[in-house]
C-alpha cells in the first residue's frame, strides 16, 4: 500500500477539512486553475484558428505561391502574358511537395448598374482551376462553368452584391480599359450564378471570378497565354523553403533577360502575416500570466494546508516518518486539487470552444480581423500539452513551499495549537 497516497486521500475526503479555514482558500486555488485553463484554451484555440482561417482564405484566392513574369507592375492586373508551354505545367514534378498548379489571369474593370458603380478585378480561371476551397464560401448558387464553351457566368461576393444592389441571376455590365491609348473600353455582360462570402475584405471587396478566356480575348492573347500560375503545396510550415524551390524550378532558362518571378503569399501579404505573428506573442503572454496566477494560488493553498496540519506532521515525524514521505502526502493533495481545477477548466473551456465552433456566437469585424466570427481550432495535442505543462510547472513550483515541512520540529509541532 502507498501510505502517503492513503493518508492524502483521507485528508481530501475528511469532512472537517471542508469546513476548516483552508476550505475557501482551496476553492479559490481550484477556481484559479480552472479559470486559467479556460483562458489558455480559448486563447490558443482562437489564435491558431484565426491564423489558419486567414491563411486558408488567402491561399484559396491566390494559391500558396504565385509564379508570374518579373516586371515592375504593382497593380492587381496581369499585363504581360506567360505561355502555358512550360516544364512545370500542368504537372509540377520538380518539387514533390507541390500538390496542384493552375493558370489564372486578372483584369481590372468597373461594374456599372442603374444606381451605382464599383471597381473590381475579374479573375479569369481555366478548366484546371481547383474550386474545392472556394466552394465552402459559396452562400447560394453554383460555380461558373469554365469547362464548356465561353459563357458570361461569374461569381461575385456578397459584399459587392449588396453594394451594387445585385442578386443571384442578375446580369450587369462591366467596362475594362484597353491597353491601347484613346481606345473605347471593352464591354462585357456578366450573369451572377453564385454569391460567395469569404469574410476576407481584401478579396470580397474586389474580386469577381469567371472564365479566363474573357481576359485572353480582351488582352488579345493567344489561347495558350495566361497571366500567372498559382501553386499549392502540402506543407505550409515550410512555405519559405518551398517558395525558393519553386523559384529555382520555374526559372526561365530559355530567356535569361526575363526570368519568372515567384512569390509566396507570405511575401505578397507580408503585413497580414506579420500581424498574425503578434497573436503568438499574445498567446505566450496569456499562458505565462495564467500559469503564474494558478501557481501562486496553489502555493498559498499548500502552505495553508501544511500550517493547518502542523500537529499531524509532528506526530508522523515522531512515529518515524521522514521529511520526503510527509512532503509527498501534501504534494498528492496538491495534485488532486490541480487535477480538479483542470477537469473543470477543460470541461468549461472545451464547451465554450465547441459552442463557438458550431454556432459562431462571437462575431468579429471583417475589416479589422478579416473574418466575420471568431474561428477556433480544437487540437487534441494542444489541449494535452497545455494540461501537461500546467501540471509539471505547478508540481515543480510546489516542491519549494513543501520544504517548510523539513523545518518543523516534532515536539513543537505536537504542542502547536
Report on this model:
Helices cover 50% and strands 18% of the residues. By secondary structure, the chain is α+β, with helices and mostly antiparallel strands. The strands form 2 sheets. The protein has a 6-stranded mixed barrel. A two-stranded antiparallel ribbon has the order 2-10. A hairpin with a 4-residue loop joins β3 and β4. The two termini are 31 Å apart.
Layout of secondary structure:
Blueprint: H1 3-13, H2 15-18, H3 22-62, E1 65-69, E2 82-83, E3 98-112, E4 117-125, H4 132-135, E5 138-141, E6 153-157, H5 158-164, E7 171-176, E8 186-196, H6 201-204, E9 207-211, H7 212-218, E10 225-226, E11 228-233, H8 239-249, E12 260-264, H9 265-268, H10 270-308, H11 310-318, H12 323-359, H13 366-369, H14 380-398, H15 410-415
Helix pairs in contact: 1-12, 3-10, 3-12, 3-14, 10-12, 10-14, 12-14
Portion in strands = 15-25%
Overall mean confidence score, pLDDT? 85
Gap from first CA to last CA: 31 Å
- Tally of individual helices: 15
Order of helices and strands: HHHEEEEHEEHEEHEHEEHEHHHHHHH
Major β-sheet profile:
6 strands, mixed, barrel
Features of this protein?
six-stranded mixed beta barrel, 50% helix, single chain, 18% strand, 12 strands, alpha+beta, 417 residues, two-stranded antiparallel sheet
Offer a concise description of the structure.
This protein has helices at residues 3-13, 15-18, 22-62, 132-135, 158-164, 201-204, 212-218, 239-249, 265-268, 270-308, 310-318, 323-359, 366-369, 380-398, 410-415, and strands spanning 65-69, 82-83, 98-112, 117-125, 138-141, 153-157, 171-176, 186-196, 207-211, 225-226, 228-233, 260-264.
